[in-house]
């Protein structure tokens, strides 16, 4: 579906409606909900002093798992949406977000594949759900894939995104006001639309 013709406010209603209506769903075998995971990821990016685009990428990195409420998606055997990183990135591009955001959304899975190739012990640090989804995501990279990924201009931030993804699973952390992320998204979409 083409969302590019929507107004900025309609786009924000669409995106954040997903979080408000479905964000409290189980986060594929983890001890937190989707919305808790997304907020914690964004808070970690913010704590490290990153800009609005990186904070939003951290917030949106798993949005593909929520898109089964808007379009037909394929499941990873009960562990969320298959190719959620690509589906989420395409959705964000379609909405008009600058490419850094969807690229980082795509890269968070590539970073997991990279780290499990480059550091085999990293695999043991993954949760059981994350190990299971890795099977659907192509497993560890091969040498050529890893070399190409190391040359990605967003490589370093992508590895940080992966760390935030792994860390953002703490139970009983109070949710921030979503209005904060809505405002950030509004600013970025507006800025993107006039450039």
UniProtKB/TrEMBL annotation:
Give the source's domain of life in one word.
Bacteria
Where does the record place the HD domain? 37-113
Stored SUPFAM superfamilies: HD-domain/PDEase-like
Stated name of the protein = HDIG domain-containing protein
Species in which this protein is naturally found: Algoriphagus marincola
